[in-house]
Specification:
By secondary structure, the chain is an alpha/beta fold. Among the domains are: 121 residues, Glutamyl-tRNA Synthetase, domain 3; 94 residues, Arc Repressor Mutant, subunit A (Orthogonal Bundle), CATH 1.10.10.350. The strands form 5 sheets. The protein has a 4-stranded parallel sheet, with helices on one face. The chain has a 3-stranded antiparallel sheet with strand order 3-4-7. Strands 11-10-14 form a 3-stranded mixed sheet, with no helix packed on it. Helix 19 crosses helix 21. The chain starts with a strand and ends with a helix. 38% of the residues are buried. The structure holds glutamic acid. The site of glutamic acid (GLU) has 8 residues, from helix 6. Glutamic acid binds next to helix 6.
Length: 509
């Protein structure tokens, strides 16, 4: 292991969406490539947004994707605890250190006073006033109160927060691994709360303190956090020295059909946005995940990897090993990456075609069993999977494409046959049953040759007979080559299905 340490720092507030999993993936790829340690830290300091079960869900998603961390709440290393709510006592001292250095202050304003400030300072040019350099000296805080007054309020445990004192007109710069040099004017950022009245740190203080204490060398996160970077950089400067700050990379946004991809886009456009099924704890509403939709984890991480990255070639299909080998942060794009569900399906199709029986076996078996289709013979199942996998885009497609090999179709698409059905065709199939009954070596060639010989004798166009035969064996107009199906389902079953269909078709002449 090198000294390189990266982290994924989710807040357990709901389902893990595409963007979250892509952040995990890039962390993971970078970590494996640099023999680094991948840390998962749970950022649960905002008690109002905490959602029961969300933490376990994150672990389950990472497990499904094959992107498990090296250190976490479930696998503690030497930098624990890995859940911020259990680190509560650590943060206050850093807040106080900032105050003693003059970079932060205590603020005692009540919600009513804050509300009044917002209405007093509201103007056409400033529609939503912030607590900043223009305002702070008119508020109730340790900058405006005397030391005695402040100490008295603290001693009597009056509710208060600690706020950062943003400097006036300072240019805050850092070099992002993706965006290059980024500059901010400190004056546009408000005096963010660092420590809340309940004693919990806000995200801003906790993320900096924990990245420092957990010796994080590289911090990758979504671009939505770029606007918070100036606060984090100042905190690094004031508390730990900029030379120890991790290298930042702000990953491009994932765009949906209409701007930034939102969780609601899933329901709106009918595609998943979460890795796995997620049930909203308040409304009970279930949002279908990529896993349940029938995506393979290999396909899911592959499609996420190329949402914002490529290796410089035209290659699109990458295994995890290849991604580890080829990934580099300087090939991550700056611009937002557009998510296209059709393309996502294409990735899955490619991966299904590429997958070996052993990786599809249990997943497909489970889907078939849920439809009361029992598989007893593994070699037979393997042949079927190999035969039909190129016809399957999502895993549930196997139910239609493979199910009829193991279960006689319950319904037949009579309409597909009806208009062209006649006595001659009925006669043909009756004779064909008799012919194939005599085949002792039940092999594709023999079954097909018997058909061709009889067709030649009867002078009916083979195309006119192949469709009814398919409907007889499969139930509809789908599936692989029809004689291959006959070979696999066996002689008895083939004859049984033809005879059964004849009865049904004949009723509709
Ligand atoms: N807790 C933040 C989130 O939920 C993490 C942002 C970061 O990685 O700094 O996305």
């Amino acid at each position: 292991m090198s000294n390189v340490r990266v982290r994924f720092a989710p807040s357990p507030t709901g389902g893990l969406h595409l963007g979250g999993v892509r952040t995990v993936l890039y962390n993971y790829l970078f970590a494996r490539k640099h023999q680094a340690t991948f840390v998962l830290r749970i950022e649960d300091t905002d008690q109002t947004r905490f959602v029961e079960g969300a933490e376990q869900y994150i672990f389950d998603c990472l497990k499904w994707c094959g992107l498990e961390p090296d250190e976490s709440t479930q696998k503690p290393g030497e930098y624990g605890p890995y859940r911020q709510s259990e680190r509560k006592d650590i943060y206050r001292k850093y807040g106080e250190e900032l105050i003693s250095k003059g970079f932060a202050y205590y603020a005692f304003d009540t919600p009513e006073e804050l509300e009044k400030m917002r209405s007093d300072f509201k103007s056409d040019t400033n529609p939503s006033p912030q607590y900043d350099g223009n305002v702070r000296y008119k508020m109730k805080n340790s900058l405006t109160l005397s030391k005695e007054e402040t100490d008295k309020l603290l001693a009597t445990k009056v509710k208060h927060v600690i706020r950062i004192k943003m400097p006036e007109h300072e240019t805050i710069s850092f070099t992002d691994m993706i965006h290059g040099e980024v500059n901010f004017d400190s004056s546009v950022v408000d005096d963010k709360v660092l420590l809340k009245a309940d004693g919990m740190p806000t995200y801003h203080l906790a993320v900096v303190v924990d990245d420092a204490l957990m010796k994080i060398t590289h911090a990758f996160r979504g671009e939505e956090w770029l606007s918070s970077a100036p606060v984090h950089i100042l905190l690094w400067k004031y508390l730990f020295g900029l030379e120890n700050m991790p290298q930042w990379a702000h990953l491009p946004l994932i765009m949906g059909p209409n701007g930034k991809l939102s969780k609601r886009d899933g329901a709106k456009y009918g595609f998943p946005v979460f890795a796995m099924n997620w049930t909203d704890h308040k409304t009970g509403e279930l949002t279908e995940g990529f896993r349940e939709k029938g995506f393979l984890p290999e396909a899911f991480i592959n499609l996420l990897a190329v949402l914002g990255w490529n290796d410089g070639s035209e290659q699109e299909i990458f295994s995890l090993e290849e991604m580890v080998e080829k990934f580099s942060m300087d090939r991550v794009h700056k611009a937002g990456a557009k998510f296209d569900f059709e393309k996502a399906r294409w990735f899955n199709h490619e991966w299904i075609k590429k997958s070996e029986f052993k990786s599809l076996n249990s997943k497909v078996r489970e889907l078939l069993e849920a439809e009361n289709i029992q598989i007893i013979d593994d070699p037979q199942f393997e042949k079927v999977i190999e035969l039909v996998k190129e016809r399957c885009t999502l895993l549930p497609d196997f139910v239609q494409q493979a199910g009829f090999f193991f279960k006689t179709p319950e319904t037949l698409d009579v309409d597909a046959v009806k208009s062209k059905w006649n006595v001659d065709k009925a006669g043909f199939f009756n004779e064909y049953c008799g012919l194939i009954k005599g085949i002792s070596d039940w092999k594709l060639d023999n079954i097909e040759n018997a058909f061709k010989d009889l067709v030649a004798e009867k002078n009916i166009r083979p195309g006119e007979l192949l469709l009814p035969l398919r409907v007889m064996l499969v139930g509809g107009k789908f599936g692989p080559a029809v004689f291959q199906i006959a070979e696999l389902i066996g002689k008895e079953e083939t004859i049984k299905r033809i005879k059964n269909a004849l009865t049904i078709f004949n009723q509709s002449i």
